[in-house]
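Holo prediction. Input below; ligand is glutamic acid.
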Amino acid sequence: MPPSVFRFAPSPNGYLHLGHAYSALLNFDLARERGGRFLLRMEDIDATRCRTEFESAIQEDLAWLGLTWETPVRRQSEHFALYREAVEKLAGLGLIYPAFESRAEIARLVAQREGEASWPRDPDGAPLYPGVAKSLAPEERDRLIAQGTPYALRLDMAAACELVPDLTWTELGEGPGSEGGTVLARPEAWGDVILARKETPTSYHLSVVVDDALQGVTEVVRGCDLFWSTSVHLLLQRLLGMPPPLYRHHRLVTDASGQKLSKSTDATALRQLRREGVTPSDIRLLVGMP
Ligand code: GLU
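Structure of the complex:
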């Protein structure tokens, strides 16, 4: 049997905190137990927020925790051409359309729709895309593109779900409302997600799916805040002909008041704890690992 492949995939837009330590350690321990591989991937598609000094700090913190990983470390910002190819494949299936609205216009449209009736929100609580770009006349689209109006590329979710209905995934973890087992995906709950942003030719959903497949990841171990994102990932995998990994969503580490940890809080940042004399084995205890 080929070895199991695990990955820890932080975004280098801040320092790692205890929650990241838990996720990275879980991945690393599982890889060890199974005689598998452990990869580190930098999800650095957001050029405005990601910085190389955070990348170095992340690697320093992980090494301090006692983790080792294969090199070279994959950096998503170096693979935009690959993500573009995936978008083109989806475009070839007639599932992509350009959407020209600015953030402000989208906010205005949502406010307007909410004034009329309640407007649906995605599993993260963000309003679904309220625009009508999907039904723009082709001449109007061409005119806006020719004018140089920036646009995002969105997935026609209804058409995509029609093409690959009834998707399920194998959950080994403890996502919301799930004790593990087979979960029915609900990609439609996300509406017409962005696959390529105006400022970068990809998105989180697209690049995570392409990279997990390309790196041969067999088990995705990540926080249960990403549980329902898996629905979109399943859909993209099927559309792109990529094999689905198994999923293991884990509990989130919270602070004393039960809140999810944030990259902007110093108190739970690994480098801060390290400075205070906390040891790697203390970190394991702090995150509830034996
Ligand atoms: N890059 C994502 C984050 O830092 C994690 C993506 C994933 O594990 O699928 O939250």
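The domain at 5-93+155-286 is CATH 3.40.50.620 (Rossmann fold). That is the main takeaway for now.
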